[in-house]
What does this fold into?
Amino acid sequence: MSKAAYRKIFYILQFIRLFAPLTIFINVFLGIIAATFFDLIDAMFASRGGMRREQYHSWDKTLDNYWYAISLIYALLVPEYSNYIGLLIVLFVYRLLGLLFFFIFKKRQAFLLCPNIYENLFIIVSLGLFIPGLNFILLTPWFESIVLATSVLKLWQEYLLHYLTYPMAKTIRLDMRWVD
It folds into this structure.
């Protein structure tokens, strides 16, 4: 496939990424899955379409935070989330701070300092609230243990993504073709 074709698919995916998070207002899990799926697949099309890595990451992180804002609005509107709103807001602002550092310093490592714990917590709370067999995960000590474990795993993921991206991609033979 040509660079132009990859670029065209990338732009279509970005358009879809603008609307995919809104499906949360139809079904919370549809929104989570749609936003996550389109976020996961667009990097290959950007790289093969000739986009620069920094340009892609700026756009990608902006759309990620757009999704987080939509999910936070959803949580603010749905009464079941009321016990978790304070923590969700704090983690959302914390991640937003990471985005600000990223744009100011142009270093992806900012996300290691401000990892995306917000999205993980939103998903955990949503699972506990809306899947009856999983509501135990919102009870003490399960909730605290799960939040701690997912936070540690998220730090590891941020480290892999934002510090070891290039060596990791070479090791597992990802065929990314960034211009830079």
Summary: The radius of gyration is 17 Å. The longest helix spans residues 53-77. The chain has a mean pLDDT of 89.
